[in-house]
């Protein structure tokens, strides 16, 4: 199932595109404002995004720029009602990979999506997030909001383990075993407590990291 975000204020066009793509093993989430799309992106990264040029609360190129600043490999197509070269140039300058001019053939749109997906690979697996905390697995980079956070190896591995298991409680025993004991570095329980304390401080004490007393930790979305 290909997960696609479609940012479009025209409900009729959105319905037609959604129905067509969902007949081709896509799961399409439609957002009628840029603000709604941004909120959805913060909680989940899709496999690809379609962005209309004219939106009630802004222009599509500004959303393209916002998306690209966070998810560099995400396949991104913007839709313009005119073949205006200025619109097209602005879209590419702000991070779009391709464009389609309305009215468009649905088969053409789908083929463009498939082509970009083949080139990009599985983007959702690369990017993990929980509230304002984002992790890029390919680059081993961590962000809190707009700020890039520098972590030690043990802090990064702890965050990675928790965010990969978002919504699930991970026991202290499992964390110690996977992050330290499996590498032959036998440490005491206090090492985990100290590492977690430092991780939280660097991430500005996010509410999405929960302590499950006498058991372990859990990451979950709170926004």
TrEMBL record:
Residues 125-221 bind DNA. Keywords: DNA-binding, Phosphoprotein, Transcription, Transcription regulation, Two-component regulatory system. InterPro entries: CheY-like_superfamily, OmpR/PhoB-type_DNA-bd, Sig_transdc_resp-reg_receiver, WalR-like, WH-like_DNA-bd_sf. GO terms for biological process: regulation of DNA-templated transcription. Residues 125-221 form the OmpR/PhoB-type domain. GO terms for cellular component: cytosol; protein-DNA complex. Residues 3-117 form the Response regulatory domain. SUPFAM superfamilies: CheY-like. PROSITE patterns: OMPR_PHOB, RESPONSE_REGULATORY. The modification 4-aspartylphosphate is found at residue 52. One of its GO terms (molecular function) is transcription cis-regulatory region binding. Coiled coil: none annotated. It holds the Pfam family Trans_reg_C. May play the central regulatory role in sporulation. It may be an element of the effector pathway responsible for the activation of sporulation genes in response to nutritional stress. Spo0A may act in concert with spo0H (a sigma factor) to control the expression of some genes that are critical to the sporulation process. This is Stage 0 sporulation protein A homolog. It comes from Eisenbergiella tayi. The lineage of its organism: Bacteria, Bacillati, Bacillota, Clostridia, Lachnospirales.
